[in-house]
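Example record for the data management plan.
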Amino acid sequence: MAPIPAPGVEGPGDDGDGVPEVNFDEQFYPARPRSLRPRARRKLTFTGDLTPPLEPVGTNKAYVEWLVNQSMLGDATMMARQLAGQSSMWNNPYAHPNPRQAVETASVWFTAYPLSLITGRGQSFLSALGSDDLWRAFERIGIKAVHTGPVKMAGGITGWEPTPSIDGHFDRIAMAMDPLFGTEDEFRAMCESAALHGGTIIDDIVPGHTGKGADFRLAEMNYRDYPGIYHMVEIPEDDWHLLPDVPEGQDSVNLDAETERKLQDAGYIIGQLQRVIFYEPGVKETNWSATAPVTDTKGGRRRWVYLHYFKAGQPSINWLDPTFAGMRLVMGDALHSLLDLGSGGLRLDANGFLGVERSAEESPAWSEGHPLSEAANQLIGSMVRKVGGFTFQELNLTMDAIKATSESGPDLSYDFVTRPAYHHALATGDTEFLRLVLREGLKTGIDQASLVHALQNHDELTYELVHFATTHSDDVYTLGGVEMAGADLAEHVRETLRQKLTGEAGPYNAIFTHNGIACTTASVITASLEISDLEALSADDVERVRSAHLLLAMYNAWQPGVFALSGWDLCGTLPLPRDQVKSLIRTGDTRWLERGAHDLMGWNPDTHQSASGMPRATSLYGTLPEQLDDPRSFASRLSDLLAVRESAGIATGTLLDVPDGSHAAMLVLVNRLAAGTLQVTVLNFAEEELRGTVMSQVLPAGARVVDLTTDEVVAHVDELGSFRVSLGPFGGLALVVQEDVDADGGPSDRS
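Corresponding structural encoding:
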């Protein structure tokens, strides 16, 4: 590394402030896939006239250069210069989302969580996910993609020191891998291993915010374009009396509602937003925080007020600043993941909060459903498609918003729409609300193939039901013969889930703020089965849990779209006891109960925790090697039902009808496959045998009904468009409807 110029001494490429500019001509080389490199992270070595102590302040040129070297915007600028003007940027269509192409790329995903995967001794998380034995197991099951979860540097920087993540590594501060999870070379090797087994890797970007890393610290110092990354407003010193004092040992303080209003009245900020996510009295009462006084690069003192939709350590990115610095940062992050690391797709986290605008007097600012969010998502989705990747958004939206974003933004959206509904069906043994939700989606125009239908992931069981609780709160719906407004319907379902899955029914599950319930899929099932003591589970109880778990897998897999599941699902993992994660849940984040460590492959059977320190949770099903040797295990039976999905092409079909069943626990989905064949999924959400009738106007009279699992004809459609079925407890059938064809190639008159 070249010596750092002493303060006040100009170096090569210096603009007079003592901080060297990046020399792009020296670092430029033609862009090729997997050839882009952010600048290497360097530790400062003090040479020349620099003598300690070196204060971490804006007037210390060495400190500023060190921050620039760590910054995401700096890396993004370099990569943009490397890619500009290259023919490779024009090889793919990009204007419109293409959900079916994304689904064809990988229709079954494993969603990993870095903090919870138990690896072998000395083995990193990324190395474990790239191991050949794991991918052989995934290939046998039918898993085609791994979503790694957040694995890059996260948290913040205070002075010269990093600070830990405050939101499970979703507070990104760099494009470099967090050494806790592995190296960039291990990430690339994981991508290569996936490709050898016909799979792909899905990485993360966070277009809504960063952590308080180098970019935020440079923004506080008013350094070049960096303040343009964020929604931050400088408050002149004459008005610092409007700001609260920052407690000792903290770098910012949340504004209370009164201060928020005063700053709004003074014309500094747009004030109250439509909602306060993660609201907690005395901790987060508004979406705004004020910084402590900061020394800028010219020696002045500055205080800022900045927006954060989530926690105070997650400052929100400004997508419409004149510098477009935030957009440049996000786009560079995406291109690094796709073209350098080798990912095939990206999750867009917190991508629904990219636009904010002052509203009419006395009204909250417009912060959700803003057209700028749609425009920004279109830009991100288009850029990713332009280089051959795909995107999905994991955001709890109304059905209308999902429909709108599907027209120009991400290729796929997470199915937060029907997930609480199918849990409600399991908890009550009644599919009426699930059918209502599916029909509402059809009415809205949602393409089921554009959704990621998932079992458990790292977050709570979300039950906000925002479609009914917000934009359709006054619409009238009927459930159980009772008419109710959308807002009342949402609360009725939430209260039912609270009573059925928490408290005395499920003391191991927990409410998580107003968002949902912290639980695993297995513990949703145990509560639904009225098992309140997890330590008293018998072998018969485990089989009951396994059967219900497979039913939920059938629901998600035997419909169009992506099917996703986690290691907690594959292992049948139960929640952690509260005393094992006492320090993690003390602030109210009960989600840590569901994030117990699990050992997928039996790599480290004697350890009691993951490398990140998460305690090992109880797993009901065993390791994947053990399960794949047992045809009655969860993984083996899952493999069978996924083989049916794959061979029939269900993933790229189209949902046509959700007819009533002849039994409250029966769910019927009628899909049209890409080849034109009608496919029918019939499920039993009750723990009892069920005999019933399937009836739909789209079923042709006289057609044969063939069981996709056995290839046997099990019924014929009668003149009413119906046929009879028999289902065991928590049973399911995947059927195709075949019409006889006459010599001319048309439907025959024979029944």
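Summary line stored alongside the record: The radius of gyration is 27 Å.
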